[in-house]
Design a protein that fits this description.
Oligomer: single chain
Radius of gyration: 20 Å
CATH class of the largest domain: Alpha Beta
Bound molecules: 5'-O-[(R)-(carboxyoxy)(hydroxy)phosphoryl]adenosine, zinc ion
Shape: globular
Strand order of the largest sheet: 3-2-1-4-5
CATH architecture of the largest domain: 2-Layer Sandwich
Number of helices: 12
Strand content: 15-25%
CATH superfamily of the largest domain: ATPase, nucleotide binding domain
Distance between the termini: 25 Å
């Protein structure tokens, strides 16, 4: 059994996965406290992890009917993410590993999102193209095997989920904005406003900053009352621009790689119109169940199955990283 720990952002997560990839428990403690600030406050997130991680780990072990003695590996997200938040998970994992002698595996958060596709009982086997779109990251990867992937493109500025969240805020909708914006868009005309799709960004990279600014100016020009009256049209057109930008890059990635297999993950994978458009591409599509798409520790434990544990000295010296990636 593998214990996974994930604290890269605002969810305090622990999970137990077995060697075959079956998920025995997947505990996610979401920190509702950030809603009132309209976004995640790093310092608050780290303190919350500190208070709740031990309980989350106990809960995950209990639900899996496992004790520390059953563990063959302890897996922890090393980065990228909020460094203060990551450090809480890394310190807990190091302490558990040192105290029990169970080997420690350091996992990259983006690799974990890809590994969410490998869960039993229906693992999606490489090769495939993977789109991960969440509040913190948006990238396309070519996955050749379970041990890693090549990044084909990534956002140059905001993540797709961040674009949803910021757009929702401009339209007076609560945080997190994605699901609220999707609901507000129902019945709206997606062609009412022509928002940009970052057509000038070549290749497989994404950009959402221009779109965000376009919505800001449109709302300002309409005025508060008119923007409120046309909220469904604004939401539908804005959502359409994000979905279109994502789907166009996915299409290009499938063409460029000659692959007919696509996996999507991250919180934005829950978006209805995105899923409809993706389903129309003619590729074999795999979407992990929702609990594996958003941040969770089961995906961290899944990734650890195919990665080497650190030796004792490296485990004790393990540090978190905020941005970038490890050498692969
Ligand atoms: O993967 P996730 O739970 O956490 C991060 O790692 O960020 O993703 C959260 C993001 C948020 O930006 C949220 O607005 C977005 O996913 N999201 C959605 C939907 N549900 C969640 N975006 C669009 N449509 C949705 N239905
Ligand atoms: Zn994530």
């Amino acid at each position: 059994m593998i214990l996974g720990i994930e604290t890269s952002c605002d969810d305090t997560c622990a999970a137990v996965v077995d060697g075959g990839g079956a998920i025995l428990s997947n505990v996610v403690g979401s920190q509702g406290i950030h809603d009132r600030y309209g976004g995640v406050v790093p310092e608050v997130a780290a303190r919350h992890h500190l208070e709740h991680l031990n309980a989350a780990i106990d809960d995950a072990l209990h639900r899996a009917a496992a004790g520390l003695g059953h563990l063959e590996r302890i897996a922890v997200t090393q980065g990228p993410g909020l460094v203060g938040a990551l450090l809480v998970g890394v310190a807990a994992a190091k302490a558990l590993s040192a105290a029990t002698g169970v080997p420690l595996v350091a996992v990259d958060h983006l690799e974990a999102h890809v590994a969410a596709n490998f869960a039993a009982p229906a693992p999606f086997e490489p090769p495939f193209v993977c789109l991960v779109a969440s509040g913190g990251h948006t990238f396309l990867a070519r996955v050749e095997d379970r041990t890693g992937f090549a990044v084909l493109g990534a956002t140059l500025d905001d993540a797709a989920g961040e674009a949803f969240d910021k757009g929702a805020r401009m339209l007076g909708l609560p945080f997190p904005g994605g699901p609220h914006l999707q609901r507000a868009a129902e019945g709206g005309d997606p062609a009412a406003f022509a928002f940009p799709r970052a057509a000038g960004v070549p290749g497989l990279d994404f950009s959402f900053a221009g779109l965000k600014t376009a919505l800001l100016y449109t709302v300002r020009d309409l005025g508060e009352a008119e923007a409120a009256r046309r909220r469904a049209d604004l939401a539908a057109s804005y959502q359409e621009a994000i979905v279109d930008a994502l789907v166009r890059r996915v299409e290009r990635a499938l063409e460029a790689t000659g692959s007919g297999r696509l996996a999507i993950g991250g919180g934005v994978a829950a978006n209805g119109p995105l899923r409809e458009r993706i389903a129309g591409l003619g590729a074999v599509v795999h979407v992990p169940e929702p609990a594996l798409c958003t941040d969770n520790a089961a995906m961290v434990a899944l990734a650890a199955r195919d990665r080497d544990p650190l030796d004792r000295a490296a485990a004790l010296a393990l540090d978190a990283y905020a941005t970038g990636e490890r050498d692969r």
